[in-house]
Amino acid sequence: GAGVSQSPSNKVTEKGKDVELRCDPISGHTALYWYRQRLGQGLEFLIYFQGNSAPDKSGLPSDRFSAERTGGSVSTLTIQRTQQEDSAVYLCASSLSGRATDTQYFGPGTRLTVL
Amino acid sequence: TQLLEQSPQFLSIQEGENLTVYCNSSSVFSSLQWYRQEPGEGPVLLVTVVTGGEVKKLKRLTFQFGDARKDSSLHITAAQPGDTGLYLCAGAEGSSNYKLTFGKGTLLTVNP
Predict the structure, then answer these.
(1) Residue of chain B whose Cα is closest to the Cα of A42
(2) Alpha-carbon gap, residue A19 to A16, rounded angstroms
């Protein structure tokens, strides 16, 4: 398909374990975003990648969170030493050029549950 | 960080009714977007407004951006069960040309 894909769709882990979430953006999109959506809440910005520029990591809630984007395409969000408050849906989006007026195309998300 | 408040938080109506949901802030946005999100899916863009006072129509949906670019509304005419979902507004911070601030959303249920 031509849309944004994310894996896994669901992840259940134990407190203290590390998790990796993957995002495959739409081919040709230079901008990639990660968001967190807690139950009943809106989307919380985590990190933004644009081409080869340094990412905007200003939304990462703690140093346990990190993200990479390899080759300007696939991105991985890593959460180390997971805590129960990390439980949420993690959404990835890509857009053509990263302007705020661009359409952001979202993946279906990864639902993370930390026990 | 600019805050966006959406109201109402929940709305349950019967098929055929009209409704309006609101997105308000004390800050000015350079542009504003509305998304709809269905359970288990990511949000899907409905519209982008960039000019104060702008009105856009998408079939039965009418979007308005306030004159001062601090607020927006979404009006749905003759709602249908397929309109059910979480409606999110998102504004571009004035100093950023790529970052969006999302409201918490309005969860709309249209009963047949």
Answers:
(1) B104
(2) 10
What are B100's strand-pairing partners? Answer: B92
pLDDT in tens, chain B (112 residues): 558 999 999 999 999 999 999 999 998 999 999 999 998 899 999 999 999 999 999 999 999 999 999 999 999 999 999 999 999 999 987 666 788 899 999 999 999 9
Q: Three-state SS string across A62-84, please?
A: CCCEEEEEHHHCCEEEEECCCCH
Measured between alpha carbons, how far is A106 from A103 in angstroms, rounded to an integer? Answer: 9
Beta-bridge mates of residue B21: B74
Rg (CA), chain A: 13
Q: Tell which residue, B99, B93, B86, has the closest CA to residue B43.
A: B86
Pairing of strands B71-76, B19-24: antiparallel
Question: Between A93, A101, A105, which is nearest B31 by CB?
Answer: A101
Binary contact (B100, A104; C-beta < 8 A): yes
